[in-house]
Amino acid sequence: MSSQCTLELPTTMAIADQSSEYDINISVAGLLILLLFLIFSYYVLILKKKATKLRRSQPPEVAGGWPIIGHLRLLTTDSLLLHEIFGAMADKYGPIFQIRLGVHPTLVISKWEIAKECYTTLDSIVSFRPKILTEKELGYNFAGFGFRPNYDDYYRNMRKIAVSEVLSNRRLEIQRDLRVSEVNRGVKGIYNSWTEYRNGDLIVDLDEWIGNINLNVILMMVCGKRLVGGSEMDRCRKAMRGFFELAGRITVGDAIPFLKFLDLGGYLKATKEVSKELDCLMEEWLEEHRQKKKDAGAGEEEDLMGVMPSLLEGMDLGGYDADTVNKATCLTLISGATDTMTVTITWAISLLLNNQEALKGVQEELDNHVGNKRLVDESDISKLEYLQAVIKETLRLYPAGPLSGARKVSQDCTIGGYNVAAGTHLITNIWKIQRDPRVWPEPSKFKPERFLSSHNYNHIDVKGQHFELCPFGYGRRSCPGLGISLLMTPLVLASLIHSFELRTRCDEPVDMAANLGLTMHRVNPLHVLVKPRLLATAYA
């Protein structure tokens, strides 16, 4: 029995040893689990704090966004235009906020200090544009530099050609007589119609009259061509109007790419039709240049369309053929210059008709500096301080493009103290900035005198140096046609006001209802009653 006991003792001790080892293993495992739990909890807390910090460092997002469509449903109302909707959102969420245009996060800024940060410090980062379907169709698959998504060598080369050959100060000085003669021809046309009518006031459609003058001036500069009216002028103006109504329009296919094939609203179909008509016009004019060169030999060309073939020789055209680049570049200049200047001048006249004291002030200034024996010349413009103030105030209240062309942020950055991810779209609400009550007392009132030399804002110009007033856009992709606009707008406006008495039917207020395509134009054509106010010899 003792033998059995002796045999059992090591067995019991082995069991005890195993139990002790097992307890030790359980303790180690518990400690490991506890340690892992603590590490996991620590990282959860850290990540939560980081996520909270990230959310706080991102711009506030407008409430009411839906899956997939984002905030699209909030951007269409019968009573407000898009820049006004964004303005109301800025009042609620602040001068920088984020919305979702379908699947695209979009930053909207409405403060000049933030705009300055974007288009100076961050200008190289925000100089790209999103690919908009309507702009692709109207811009020859982005061959037109105005709609070019990338800020690349092709864009820079085409813009450089456009400026040097058409829009530089040297070229504008050479074309001076062309501008004056075209405006005078328009003034004399109204006078001749009035002399035939000879029964009080003559009704004139100023949208058409101003648009025809601007179109002919830019056509002469770009294509060496002048339209004499009739069906060709109507055809061209109609196509240009379609261009601006459709360009820049965000379609469902842009916001939600996988629905592109549906073409909801039919905008792409309409855009293709307008694009086809515009291309027919450009091809006809290009063929005229080919024929002219064939008939006349290697003569010196003066307009852009004529010199483009030689300028493009040996240049990297980004995969486009030379004719496409020529047509796309010329169309960019023709469409941009025609519509924006016409819009600005018609808004200026509308404001003056609704503010008769200001209209009288412009007329008195013109009478003092020009008199009643001749028409206005471009050399008179620099002396017309009040007229220049009226134009500045018009551009402040009714910028042709109230929203900047959409940009696309090319890399992660910080804007207005908020983190903005690469790929985010960027829209600047110029209309809202130019009505900022921090800068402009009584911001919604038409007060040209604020820009006179005796007031506080006379130092502010519209050439892009003062971010409080930038109707021609910001940064390196601002409007290259600023120079010609600042020549043609005062010349046409001064000539019209100086040459004729203007009034509405029954002296009713002008309807200021606006519509928005790529530019903000009047809903209804501006029809006015006119009669001469100069000596008859001035119109000879």
What is the overall number of helices? 17
CATH architecture: Orthogonal Bundle
Q: What multimeric state do the chains show?
A: single chain
Mean residue pLDDT: 90
The H-level CATH homologous superfamily, spelled out, is: Cytochrome P450
Q: How many structural units, i.e. domains?
A: 1
Low-confidence stretches at least 5 residues in length (pLDDT < 50)? 1-16
Question: What is the overall silhouette?
Answer: globular
Strand fraction equals 5-15%
CATH class wording: Mainly Alpha
Largest sheet features: 4 strands, mixed
Order of helices and strands: HHEEHHHHHEHHHHHHHHEEEEHHEEEE
Layout of strands and helices, then pairs:
Elements: H1 2-57, H2 82-93, E1 96-101, E2 104-109, H3 112-121, H4 133-138, H5 153-167, H6 169-174, H7 176-197, E3 202-205, H8 206-223, H9 230-246, H10 252-255, H11 267-296, H12 304-312, H13 322-353, H14 356-369, H15 385-397, E4 407-408, E5 413-415, E6 418-420, E7 425-428, H16 430-433, H17 482-499, E8 500-503, E9 514-516, E10 520-522, E11 527-532
